[in-house]
Design goal:
Length: 283
């Protein structure tokens, strides 16, 4: 399903690009966060039904790519799962590009292991030791004497930066860098020694689609309650360690063109789509 969804996203973007030829005033170009790309497609499909005169070209590739696209004048909206860095802010000032920032949803990053892994929860300290490579074997964590394989994202990914900062680590040099959330999930499904992180919105609500993976509950420390990234009540009460806002950065010159879409996703029908897609509303 994840592969099919990835292919569909590409086809959807391509069809919208064809539609937009010669009609750039009614085309919104959105690039960036892989965490947000499926949600962006869902929102764009619904928005296009309300206003067929607009088309939307959507692509992922990471938060850093989306932000760079804004700097190069190649996008109207940059989806980002992290705030701008000081260096990026300086580049926008240098180019005299004024931005508007929209926080339209919240995401919880899920840590996943193979379904055969006996653990169901993990504390943050142990997780940091695993992701940094200090713990290299599951034996001390789950009693299984097999090496740990780490699946993560490239450095251009906002999720890569988010997890690194939350855990206050440098990633293990043995960590495998994957191109997206779907690829991490597919790798974990066939690797009984694997662990990786994905946006909770990529965890399907259909049990059969999650065959081969287990979503770990997270404990802030060994004495804390374990919280699932799929627990909407916990997210609403800000109890989950790896929850974060999702950003959209928009150049002021694009603002008039995108305003109706922003209102759709933050105040209109889009809010229901956000929740139904496995993400959370800002409270």
């Amino acid at each position: 399903m994840a592969l099919n969804r990835f292919i569909y996203t590409i086809l959807f973007s391509f069809s919208l690009l064809l539609w937009s030829c010669g009609n750039t005033d009614h085309t919104i170009k959105m690039k960036g966060s892989d965490t947000e790309v499926n949600l962006a497609v869902n929102l764009a499909e619904a928005y296009n039904r309300t206003d067929p005169s607009f088309s939307m070209a959507i692509s992922g590739g990471g938060s850093g790519l989306g932000i760079t696209s804004l700097l190069n004048g190649q996008a109207d909206i940059a989806n980002s799962s992290r705030p701008l860095t000081e260096e990026e802010q300086a580049l926008f000032r240098k180019k005299k590009i004024d931005l508007k920032t929209v926080v339209f949803a919240e995401d919880a990053t899920a840590f996943v292991v193979h379904s055969d892994n006996p653990i169901s929860e993990i504390d943050v300290k142990t997780l940091s030791k695993i992701m940094s490579g200090e713990i290299e074997n599951w034996k001390s964590v789950s009693s299984r004497n097999i090496p740990i394989n780490i699946y993560g994202r490239q450095s251009s990914s906002g999720t890569y930066s988010f997890i690194r900062k939350k855990l206050k680590i440098v990633y293990s040099q043995k960590a495998k860098e994957m191109t997206g959330n779907a690829q991490i999930l597919e790798a974990i499904k066939i690797d009984k020694s694997g662990i990786g992180y994905v946006g909770a919105g990529y965890i399907s609500k259909k049990i059969q689609d999650n065959k081969g993976i287990k979503v770990l509950k997270i404990k802030n420390d060994v004495n804390s309650n374990a919280i699932s990234p799929l627990d909407s009540a916990a997210i609403k009460n800000r109890l989950y360690f790896f929850q974060r806002p999702l950003y959209q950065f928009i150049p002021e010159k694009s603002w008039p063109k995108v305003l109706s879409f922003i209102q759709f996703e933050t105040k209109g029908e889009g809010t229901k789509i956000i929740e139904n897609s496995g993400y959370y509303l800002i409270h």
